[in-house]
Write a structure and sequence with these properties.
Keywords: Cell membrane, Membrane, Transmembrane, Transmembrane helix, Transport. This protein is 72% helix and 3% strand. The chain is mostly helical. The strands form 2 sheets. Strands 1-2 form a two-stranded antiparallel sheet. A two-stranded antiparallel ribbon has the order 3-4. A hairpin with a 2-residue loop joins strand 3 and strand 4. Helix 6 packs antiparallel against helix 19, helix 8 packs across helix 17 and helix 12 packs parallel to helix 14.
Amino acid sequence: MKILAQSKENLNQLEKDGITKHRLFILALQHMFAMFGSTVLVPALTGLNPAVALFTSGLGTLIFHLVTKGKVPAYLGSSFAFIGPIIAAQEQFGRDGAMLGIVTAGLVYILMSAVIRMLGTDFFRKLLPPVVVGPVIITIGLGLAPTAKDMASEHLLVAAVTLAIAVGVSVFAKGIVKVIPILLGIIGGYAFAAFSGLVDFTPVMEASWFAFPKFALPAVEGNLKAISLIAPIALVTMVEHLGDVVAIGSTVKKDFVAEPGLHRTLLGDGVATLAAGLFGGPPNTTYGENVGVLALTKVYNPMIIQLTAVIVILTSFVQKIGVLIRTIPTAVMGGIVFLLFGMIASIGLRTLVENNVDLSKNRNLVIVSVTLVVGISNLTLSFAGLEFGGMGLAAIVGIVMNLILPEIEKDESEITEEELEINSELRYEAN
């Protein structure tokens, strides 16, 4: 009943704002363009079905709005943080293993939602502070650098042109165009590749206009180890989720952490990710690109995002779109991910800087250093029949170190005369 009441309120607000059906559709299309490039990029990189990814993106968004009582104008698309683990899981355990890991990641969200509802958001912030989240996000970006190199090497000129277009749009464009550099980079790079004779349009011409996406339910047997590769990343993307929810709240001037509550937004994200895994799509996450559209248009009605989700679901049934996405040359995606993976690593750095993480403190320095090396070295650890490695293991190591290392360091006034004498001797020898 609450969601119906909120929907009625949203419709009334549309009338007050003078938004006609025509304008409502245009605003929804803008949001679709903002999410489209990033959402189809993840399946293009991981080998998943792009039509399924579009479907689960729209479905996940509608689920999120249902769980959050239609109050949060957020769109959910494919998450970049899971790219590396999905690729690794598929190489070792096949697609079923990757999907099982994605389903489990959704369950981790749901479990954490219940914990936050009982204990409050302070527990969540203590478990995953910036000193842990920052280096893990950095490893997500840097750990994928070899993948970017291999993809771009397919045709360096095409990759360079694609990258140049995306960078140019990101730096010099204005208005709505500025928030879709990935989409425009892919379109520009694809056109250049087609002009160079690198694209075969035959599959697109032979494809039907309408067809059901090829959904794929995961098989559980023999794939349990894949859980440990993918599920731990959910601990990191939860912080990304919190940041997006806060950003949306700041944009629309509402506190969504309080109402409908962080536990509800996390639950919505978790159920959406679980559903994505069951249908054969990539994990979902709240999209910063669509927050940018909200800021540009100054129109915050959740009904617009819900209409966007419906349009995206309908688009997923257009088979020619899915086939067209598959014809994009690897080098085009290689040019895009050079920017994208670097941006992910930069977000990790920004997390440390903006939260004033003091690396002059040994505790913080140790946590960041060890987490970075564990994540980038692809170290693996077997425990209870499961295998933890890469970014997932880095997240676990960072969390454990943050919980067990004392936060209070010795104050300078407490340093003994003997320690001062030793420090003086070391400085003298160094000079």
